[in-house]
Design brief:
about 325 residues, Rossmann fold, two-stranded parallel sheet, about 45% helix, about 10% strand
């Protein structure tokens, strides 16, 4: 059962309308809606019928740059009041390390009996636009558990993927016939799983900023950045992914997660200056692009420009933290 406090969204999902652009999501919703997949606005109803509860709410950036965990806490309070039988509470949202500890305290402070619940971390590694296939054919499944109950429940949930039985079904999505697939699973403690998610996003953001810095050097010396990327990416230790030079990363994850990770490092008295440089290079890319526009057009006043693409990356309809938005605003300001 999927729960949301937005009644209009739930009503739309019950009618079969998919509110976001994700390949294969309409087919899955049509196939399972009203059967194995149900929707509700009641947390209490969902908890009473479940052995496992995934918390998947947003963790936006706060004014201080930290992850805002107020939505996680609000859901935890509702869940706590509804626990009547053993249940595993699984943190799926992108959160700072030690959030499982805070989640456990919140549940206890709001009336949940310690003997009736366990808390685990199961970070997601889904890319917007390919989330369905990323989930069904993952590079890895990470479960962070501190007790045997949580480990047992999560292993059972992912059994069709880790044993490969899902890929042998007739309605498997993006299953290559004849291939023997098994999703690898990594079992850690809760703190390690939480850290893996933030560190993964920070590392990918670092690759983007690195190749953008290399692109700037390439442009200065007359090298071809695409050829440079091909040469770097062919190294099996590096790989070609996230080596696409451009105007910088955006979206709902990388900007906030890199900054939140930097704050976690600061709170641990660890000097992680590399993350500062990653963010500086990313911000600089937009300014460099504007300088190129000025150089090509001289003055922007009175000129009409077309912008193709507002989403933060291709294959999505998400404009959150899109570098294109900031560039458009700067162009409009200069063109007045």
């Amino acid at each position: 059962m999927s729960v949301d406090n937005d009644e209009l969204k739930i009503a739309s999902l019950e009618r079969g309308y998919v509110p976001i652009h994700e390949r294969f999501l309409p087919e899955l919703l049509s196939r399972h809606r009203g059967g194995r997949l149900r929707f509700s606005t009641s947390v209490a109803e969902a908890v009473s019928e479940s052995e496992a509860v995934f918390i998947t709410v947003g963790t936006p950036q706060s004014e201080t740059g930290e992850a805002d965990l107020s939505f996680v806490e609000a859901v935890a309070r509702e869940v706590a009041s509804a626990i009547r039988s053993p249940v595993v509470i699984i943190e799926k949202s992108t959160v700072p390390v030690r959030t499982c500890e805070s989640l456990r305290k919140t549940l206890l402070m709001n009336g949940a009996q310690q003997a009736l619940f366990s808390v685990a971390s199961n970070p997601e590694f889904l890319r917007e636009g390919t989330a369905v296939t990323d989930f069904l054919c993952p590079d890895r499944i990470v479960i962070g558990v501190d007790d045997e109950i949580s480990a047992s429940v999560l292993h059972e949930i992912y059994l069709p993927l880790t044993t490969g039985s899902y890929y042998r079904t007739q309605d498997a999505i993006l299953f290559e016939k004849g291939a023997v697939l098994r999703a690898p699973i990594i079992v850690t403690n809760a703190k390690s799983a939480e850290l893996i998610k933030h560190a993964s996003n920070a590392f990918l953001a670092m690759k983007i900023s690195f190749i953008n810095a290399v692109a700037n050097i390439s442009e200065s010396v007359g090298a071809d950045i695409e050829q440079v990327c091909a040469g770097i990416g062919s190294d099996s230790r590096i790989g070609p992914k996230f080596l696409n030079a451009g105007i910088g990363y955006g979206g709902s994850c990388f900007p906030k997660d890199v900054q939140a990770f930097q704050i976690v490092a600061h709170q641990c008295n660890c000097d992680f200056g590399l993350l500062t440089e990653v963010m500086r290079i990313n911000n600089e890319q937009g300014r460099r692009f504007l300088n190129k526009v000025r150089s090509a057009l001289w003055t922007l006043r009175g000129k009409r420009l077309a912008v193709l693409g507002l989403a933060f990356k291709g294959g999505t309809d998400d404009v959150r933290e899109s570098p294109a938005i900031a560039i458009i605003e700067a162009l409009l300001k200069e063109g007045r």
